[in-house]
């Protein structure tokens, strides 16, 4: 089976107030040793995956485009040296507005990158400042247009709703501004206040003022109705695209297909094992330099856990869950395992079952976590 490759670049200019991802600012002194260690790990996986075709590659972060152009070239060259890459591979890179320039974009393009995902979040300068972003709306527009001028036609913008001080009209303006840029994909995420973030600390002392529940709901409804009405089909809970521009790499996760992750804090799903790398950047570098695998955690999920994962990952997408595929993968009867749960969710109108297919309803898309929890054991 074709495999996906994820490459983690854990560096950022400034940690956003809502972010709980493994990313770090003020580590420019580690760029060079990190890239060297990363390339060493890529080479190692290249040997393991000899003869396996890579058909999706995703470089995420952090902010990969913080790295200088020559570092990006080094990584991309090592990827091509180490793996057999499908001619039609999707090759994505995350970028923040203001961190790209012509030299970096040309390095990405010559290295095979054909999709860029810009972390815009909102086109309101006031809201950008309130969530700790350091780019402006104008920078976002300029960054997207520069990439398009250099031949990147497959571009995603990340947008957020439910931000402190945000109104539904603010969100509407942001979505309309995004669509003016002739992009192909929008990921729209509701803010979640994650433990350990500055927003969580503010929330605890009562200084984080979020939209009221009804306004948050209005933003969700507007997003999920407006985008499909304007050519962006909803194909997953938080993802919308023009026809043919769905993010193929993410389907590796949702379809329970294998993928390999390299870099600090990267995760892999390989030979039905889940692996996660050392999170600390310095420890990751030390480990790789010593010739030791940088794997911090390795797990063979129990069949019960694996079945639950398979189900709720599949249900995230509009394709839903194929009961026949589930039964072939696990050699278990779907209704024998989950008949009561299915009946309960049908009664609540959160799922629909047609022939051998299970899908979230519109209501189920809204309350997906309720559905997913229902399939988890115990």
TrEMBL record:
It is found in: Cytoplasm. Pfam families: Radical_SAM. The keyword NAD does not apply. Residues 1-233 form the Radical SAM core domain. One of its GO terms (cellular component) is cytoplasm. Keywords: 4Fe-4S, Chaperone, Cytoplasm, Heme, Iron, Iron-sulfur, Metal-binding, S-adenosyl-L-methionine. PROSITE patterns: RADICAL_SAM. The keyword Oxidoreductase does not apply. One of its GO terms (biological process) is porphyrin-containing compound biosynthetic process. One of its GO terms (molecular function) is metal ion binding. InterPro entries: Aldolase_TIM (IPR013785), Coproporphyrinogen-III_oxidase (IPR034505), Elp3/MiaA/NifB-like_rSAM (IPR006638), HemW-like (IPR004559), rSAM (IPR007197), rSAM_sf (IPR058240). SMART domains: Elp3. Probably acts as a heme chaperone, transferring heme to an unknown acceptor. Binds one molecule of heme per monomer, possibly covalently. Binds 1 [4Fe-4S] cluster. The cluster is coordinated with 3 cysteines and an exchangeable S-adenosyl-L-methionine. PANTHER family: COPROPORPHYRINIGEN III OXIDASE, RADICAL S-ADENOSYL METHIONINE DOMAIN-CONTAINING PROTEIN 1, MITOCHONDRIAL. Belongs to the anaerobic coproporphyrinogen-III oxidase family. HemW subfamily. This is Heme chaperone HemW. It comes from Pelosinus fermentans B4. The lineage of its organism: Bacteria, Bacillati, Bacillota, Negativicutes, Selenomonadales.
